[in-house]
């Protein structure tokens, strides 16, 4: 008899565990300070009393997480729109693989959209590098989040990848819960969304079939394209590029991650669009003729990228950035002079936020590249003639 894998070290919390977790959280000074930041109109004691009445993870998401995310949407976006969910089945479990821009909001907004359209919320993959304090781990695991362990020695990394792969396949095929995971480790800081081969290799580990195609069909992968008109962390990402240019050994700190989280939550985002693709099924059959296993994964990565790029919604900010970067007016019919000025003022205002000494020309060019890369990916996918019509 095959022994069931032990998922205790990575799984989210379950309903019967939440009161014990709440007891820990209400003793954490940092958590109470966070409540004051997130809910300034609500006294912390009143919030804690309300929290202690919660009996299930679903109730916690409905009464605590969702209202806060909706307030963020209301206060920091012009709108959040979506498409494609009408082609999916609310009773099916899908593996949503998306491009990744914001540490917290990508899966948080996705779950609000799913819930409002009659779908259950997903389980969320999160790297343990973001779990700076034990109470943060408690909080995210209350929100149906499972842990992806980073920066392990090679042997432990292989063991953890195997466990993670088994957990994802078990959750999708046995438990029947959907999962969200980014297409790469960490966010795409340059706006060039590409699926990491290591992610696909990890997902395949738990497959029982000799056929890679059949292993991936079982996961019911739905590519999701997340398009922000403005990325509130863009200047922080640009500064990180400058640090790495000047010091190849530069590593972002835990405090930097907290700064990015705060900027992402509070900063303006303009319009936000989520496009859900069709589940990838028959397209996987095309890899059967590919001989090398590594080439199979490269093909799969290109396939997911194709769907992400195809469904990515381009905003005036993207077209303007392309023209500015290339010093032409190729796409001037895609935006107005007013929209151009608003975007250029936005770029300068974000550059002004950088407190330390910065290479302003490098940072500006990096920001333009960040917003222009989705256009470059569309051009590569659909061809120049299409976009010049």
Structure described in brief:
The chain is built from 16 helices and 7 strands. The chain is α/β, with parallel strands linked by helices and 389 residues long.
Number of strands: 7
* CATH architect. name of the largest domain: 3-Layer(aba) Sandwich
What strand order characterises the main sheet?
1-7-6-2-5-3-4
Structural class by sheet pairing and helices = alpha/beta
Total number of distinct structural domains: 2
Q: How big is the Rg?
A: 21 Å
**With helices defined by DSSP (H or I, 4 residues minimum), what is the helix count?**
16
Mean pLDDT score: 92
Helix content: 40-55%
The main pleated sheet reads as: 7 strands, mixed
CATH topology of the largest domain: Glycerol-3-phosphate (1)-acyltransferase
Determine the CATH superfamily of the largest domain: Glycerol-3-phosphate (1)-acyltransferase
CATH C-level label of the largest domain: Alpha Beta
Query: What is the molecular shape?
Result: globular
Q: Estimate the strand proportion.
A: 5-15%
| First-residue to last-residue Cα separation | 62 Å
Low-pLDDT regions = 385-389
Order of helices and strands: HHHHEEHEHEHEHHEHHEHHHHH
């Amino acid at each position: 008899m095959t022994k069931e894998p032990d998922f205790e070290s990575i799984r989210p919390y379950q309903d019967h565990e939440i009161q014990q977790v709440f007891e820990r959280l209400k003793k954490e000074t940092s958590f109470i300070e966070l409540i004051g930041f997130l809910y300034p109109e609500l006294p912390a004691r009143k919030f804690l009393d309300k929290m202690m009445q919660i009996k299930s993870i679903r109730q916690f998401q409905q009464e605590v997480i969702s209202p806060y995310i909706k307030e963020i949407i209301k206060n920091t976006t012009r709108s959040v729109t979506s498409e494609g969910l009408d082609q999916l089945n609310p009773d099916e479990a899908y593996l949503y693989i998306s491009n990744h821009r914001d540490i917290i909001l990508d899966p948080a907004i996705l779950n609000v959209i799913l819930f409002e359209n009659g779908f259950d919320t997903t389980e969320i993959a999160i790297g343990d590098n973001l779990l700076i304090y034990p109470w943060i781990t408690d909080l995210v695991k209350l929100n149906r989040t499972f842990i992806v362990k980073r920066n392990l020695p090679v042997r432990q990394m292989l063991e953890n990848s195997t466990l993670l792969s088994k957990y994802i396949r078990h959750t999708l095929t046995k438990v029947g819960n959907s999962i969200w995971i980014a297409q790469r480790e960490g966010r795409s800081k340059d706006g060039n969304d590409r699926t990491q081969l290591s992610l696909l290799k990890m997902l395949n580990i738990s497959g029982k079939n000799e056929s890679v195609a059949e292993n991936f069909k079982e996961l019911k992968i739905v590519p999701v394209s997340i398009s922000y008109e403005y990325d509130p962390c863009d200047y922080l990402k640009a500064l990180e590029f400058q640090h790495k240019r000047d010091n190849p050994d530069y590593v972002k700190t835990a405090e930097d991650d907290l700064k990015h989280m705060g900027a992402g939550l509070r900063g303006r985002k303009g319009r936000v669009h989520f496009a859900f693709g069709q589940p990838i099924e028959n397209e996987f059959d095309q890899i059967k003729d590919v001989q090398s296993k590594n080439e199979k994964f490269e093909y799969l990565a290109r396939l997911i990228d194709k769907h992400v790029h195809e469904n990515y919604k381009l905003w005036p900010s993207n077209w303007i950035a392309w023209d500015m970067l290339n010093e032409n007016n190729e796409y001037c019919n895609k935006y107005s002079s007013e929209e151009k000025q608003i975007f250029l003022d936005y770029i300068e205002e974000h550059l002004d936020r950088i407190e330390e000494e910065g290479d302003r020309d490098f940072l500006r060019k990096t920001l333009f590249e960040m917003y222009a890369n989705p256009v470059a990916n569309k051009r590569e996918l659909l061809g120049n003639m299409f976009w010049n019509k």
